[in-house]
């Protein structure tokens, strides 16, 4: 019978137990021992779930206190010297300081994990990086898993992918210089696992699905020739795309198996079947680890029949990738309609799907009830009247090129907007949200329970809005925001008011650290029945004479940060979303709002891993943004925001968005990300973030002055804005006020310094 396994399970817990324990530890409310107890309890529960689902292996090593890449760095002993920590005696408090920063050191850089919305901690390396040994936590987790009485398959990030994703601040440093040292440490880890009774180890190498330079591709051979002698069987894990172009390379390595993603790249199956040796195993990732729709179990089993006949017990069945990208369980969904719920499978349900596919390959009759139930749910979804809206489809089909084009080029718009807004050099603003206080969360919860009337809830949110506006005026910000007190999440808030969406109660997914989001479900054609943000923004603008931004989430981000229907092209769904946001943008303009920010932090993460798939994505993604933003007049200034991305390869498409102002994350990279915009000669205005809002560390004025000066080396001062990296929702008011006060002071220092070279028509805003 085909064997079954997974590459990872959601570590946060069905009720976000890990998140709440982390944050309690950070606040000093629990000690390290109590935090360890919470983690051990979650690992035991998730291991038991795998055992009870009948999986042949229990996965271990997929747990991380903050991030798997950071945990791998700690296991390797590869910590930056600037923190002064000894990896062999690293405490959890120190581990969190690496991720969040401390009073003397900014946090390690953070960016998106391939094309997902998960953010990983980037390893910081250099010529002197050593791999002399690190924490022992990993081995303790192996022992816990072994106590469950099932074979244990540890999962580690592979050496080439870890090194490929690492960054060095030493100019010109070749990261492959460290590979021999790194392999010595990996070999010791594998030898230790062998001594502890481990037979199989999965080394995840998703870099194999990317465009690798030949020296990096060749490094796989050197790496696995060395690791193949460590005594354990090695499963090389790939996902998020096709690794078929490297099939011959991997098949020639001294490894015993390979895992491939047959959801994202089903076409690669035949290549791997032909390439693998007779002694190598094929793990077929056939259950979608990135989306929540129920699998067509019968179709999957049919597709794998020939492969099963060829490989027999050398065929393993698995999800396409770690299940950490989906919620834990449908059991907590009490309010979701029974119809929609029947179409879904979260992580727990996917364990059963994996087992059902393996059973169907061995004994079709025994698996037939599970296959029939899945087929019936799929048929009901395909014929549901809730999915199709003919009016939306007609409007989408009628979109033409004129709807995606601003009336005038940026050079013309810039002059008109400058005269209308009369902002100072290097205007200051924020990205949109202000702290979501306990009072705000309590009011929202009371309103949802029915304990607070709608009018009372509206009044509470207006009080919070007024507080945000007053505070921004007192701090001296030039362009204000309303603070988003009424918004639970930048995607979920819109999803609750757009047709074609459903939202969950407990469908939480980790975004980074303790930050969790609840991606909504796009199950049908999308449209906006009525304005969503207009009244809240109009009220906020009535409180101040300073310009205030309307805040919207862009169509690509609404798409990327949702679980998207899989029964029509993503481009079509994106265009439906664009039309809904276009209507909202035009209504904001009619309400007298002169600046509208259409956030697209997910724009970069949607890019396929290989360049040969990028052109099609950029075509529809750029079109969707421009349809959403291009209906307004020249005087209305369109902003967009992107964060934690590598921009070099996508700058032509970012420029094609034609936003008047783009704000980006740059503080953790010390403005290095901005270099790409300078090299490209990005034509529009840009606001490089000057402080990291994901860290509790409050930067000083001098810190931000240096960052802005660094930005002025790349971008003309007349086209620079000054802002944080991202929204301030997760921060406390005290640190927010202190950081923004320093940011405004930094902008004033730089205005005096650069005023002589700025455009003469730039004038200060009214006091």
From TrEMBL:
Organism field: Paraburkholderia eburnea
Binding residues for L-methionine: 431-433, 484, 599
Catalytic activities: 5-methyltetrahydropteroyltri-L-glutamate + L-homocysteine = tetrahydropteroyltri-L-glutamate + L-methionine
Enzyme Commission number(s) of this protein: 2.1.1.14
Name used for this protein in its record: 5-methyltetrahydropteroyltriglutamate--homocysteine methyltransferase
Function description: Catalyzes the transfer of a methyl group from 5-methyltetrahydrofolate to homocysteine resulting in methionine formation.
Gene Ontology biological-process annotations: methionine biosynthetic process; methylation
InterPro entries tied to this protein: Cbl-indep_Met_Synth_N (IPR013215), Cobalamin-indep_Met_synthase (IPR006276), Met_Synth_C/arc (IPR002629), UROD/MetE-like_sf (IPR038071)
Free-text cofactor note: Binds 1 zinc ion per subunit.
Pathway involvement of the protein, from the record: Amino-acid biosynthesis; L-methionine biosynthesis via de novo pathway; L-methionine from L-homocysteine (MetE route): step 1/1
Keyword Acetylation: no
Residues the entry annotates as binding Zn(2+) 1: 641, 643, 665, 726
Coiled coil (residue ranges): none
Entry-linked PANTHER family: 5-METHYLTETRAHYDROPTEROYLTRIGLUTAMATE--HOMOCYSTEINE METHYLTRANSFERASE
Family designation: Belongs to the vitamin-B12 independent methionine synthase family.
Domain of life the protein comes from: Bacteria
Residue ranges constituting the Cobalamin-independent methionine synthase MetE N-terminal domain according to the UniProt record: 4-309
Pfam families assigned to the protein according to its UniProt record, in alphabetical order: Meth_synt_1 (PF08267), Meth_synt_2 (PF01717)
Residue ranges annotated for the Cobalamin-independent methionine synthase MetE C-terminal/archaeal domain, each copy included: 426-748
Residues that coordinate or bind L-homocysteine: 431-433, 484, 599
Cross-referenced SUPFAM superfamilies: UROD/MetE-like
Cofactor: Zn(2+)
């Amino acid at each position: 019978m085909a064997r079954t396994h997974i590459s990872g399970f959601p570590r946060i817990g069905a009720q976000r137990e890990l998140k709440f324990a982390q944050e309690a530890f950070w606040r000093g409310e629990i000690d390290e021992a109590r935090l360890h107890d919470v983690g051990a309890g979650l690992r035991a529960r998730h291991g038991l779930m795998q055992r009870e689902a009948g999986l042949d292996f229990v996965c271990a090593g997929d747990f991380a206190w903050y991030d798997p890449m950071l945990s791998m760095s700690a296991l390797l002993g590869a910590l930056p010297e600037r923190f002064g920590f000894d990896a062999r005696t690293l405490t959890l408090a120190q581990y969190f300081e690496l991720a969040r920063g401390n009073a003397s050191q900014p946090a390690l850089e953070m960016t998106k994990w391939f094309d997902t919305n998960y953010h990983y901690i980037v390893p910081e390396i250099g010529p002197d990086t050593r791999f002399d040994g690190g924490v022992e936590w990993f081995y303790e987790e192996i022992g816990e898993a072994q106590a469950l009485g099932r074979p244990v398959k540890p999962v580690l990030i592979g050496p080439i992918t870890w090194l490929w994703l690492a960054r060095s601040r030493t100019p010109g440093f070749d990261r492959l210089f460290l590979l021999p040292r790194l392999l010595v440490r990996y070999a010791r880890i594998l030898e230790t696992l062998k001594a502890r009774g481990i037979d199989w180890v999965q080394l995840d190498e998703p870099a194999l699905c990317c465009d690798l330079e030949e020296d990096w591709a060749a490094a796989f051979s050197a790496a696995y020739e060395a690791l193949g002698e460590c005594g354990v069987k090695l499963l090389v894990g790939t996902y998020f795309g096709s690794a078929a172009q490297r099939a011959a390379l991997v098949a020639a390595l001294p490894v015993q198996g390979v895992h491939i993603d047959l959801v994202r790249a089903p076409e690669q199956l035949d290549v791997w079947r032909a390439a693998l040796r007779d002694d190598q195993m094929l793990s077929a990732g056939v259950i979608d680890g990135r989306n929540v729709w129920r699998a067509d179990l019968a179709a999957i089993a049919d597709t794998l029949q020939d492969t099963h006949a060829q490989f027999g017990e050398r065929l393993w069945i698995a999800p396409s990738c770690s299940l950490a990208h989906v919620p834990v369980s449908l059991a907590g969904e009490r309010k979701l309609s029974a119809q929609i719920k029947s179409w879904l499978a979260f992580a727990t349900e996917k364990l059963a799907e994996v087992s059902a596919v393996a059973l169907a390959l061995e004994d079709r009759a025994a698996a037939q009830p599970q296959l029939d139930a899945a087929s019936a749910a799929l048929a009901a979804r395909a014929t549901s009247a809730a999915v199709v809206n003919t009016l939306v489809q007609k409007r989408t089909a009628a979109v033409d090129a004129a709807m995606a084009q601003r009336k005038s080029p940026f050079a013309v718009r810039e002059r008109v907007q400058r005269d209308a807004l009369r902002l100072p050099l290097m205007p200051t603003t924020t990205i949109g949200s202000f702290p979501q206080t306990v009072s705000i969360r309590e009011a929202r919860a009371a309103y949802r329970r029915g304990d607070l009337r709608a009018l009372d809830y509206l009044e509470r949110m207006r009080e919070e809005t007024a507080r945000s506006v007053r505070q921004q005026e007192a701090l001296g910000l030039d362009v204000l925001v309303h603070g988003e007190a009424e918004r639970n999440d930048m995607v979920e808030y819109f999803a609750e008011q757009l047709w074609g969406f459903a939202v969950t109660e407990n469908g939480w997914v980790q975004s980074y650290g303790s930050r969790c989001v609840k991606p909504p479900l796009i199950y049908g054609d999308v449209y906006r029945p009525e304005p969503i943000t207009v009244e809240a923004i109009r009220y906020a603008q009535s409180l101040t004479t300073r310009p205030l931004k309307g805040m919207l989430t862009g169509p690509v981000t609404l798409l990327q940060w949702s679980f998207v229907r899989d029964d029509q092209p993503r481009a079509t769904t994106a265009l439906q979303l664009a039309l809904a946001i276009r209507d909202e943008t035009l209504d904001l303009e009619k309400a007298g709002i002169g600046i509208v920010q259409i956030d697209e932090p997910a724009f970069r993460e949607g890019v396929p891993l290989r360049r040969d798939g990028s052109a099609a994505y950029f075509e529809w993604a750029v079109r969707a943004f421009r349809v959403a933003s291009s209906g307004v007049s020249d005087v209305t200034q369109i902003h967009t925001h992107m964060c934690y991305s590598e921009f070099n390869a996508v700058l032509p498409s970012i420029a094609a968005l034609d936003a008047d102002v783009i704000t980006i994350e740059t503080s953790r990279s010390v403005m290095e990300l901005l270099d790409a915009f300078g090299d490209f000669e990005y034509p529009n205005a840009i606001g490089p973030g000057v402080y990291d809002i994901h860290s509790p560390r409050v930067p000083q004025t001098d810190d931000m002055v240096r960052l802005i000066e660094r930005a002025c080396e790349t971008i003309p001062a007349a086209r620079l804005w000054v802002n944080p990296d991202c929204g301030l929702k997760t921060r406390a008011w005290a640190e927010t006020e202190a950081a923004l006060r320093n940011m405004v002071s930094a902008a004033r220092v730089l205005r005096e310094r650069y005023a002589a070279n700025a455009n003469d028509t730039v004038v200060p805003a009214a006091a």
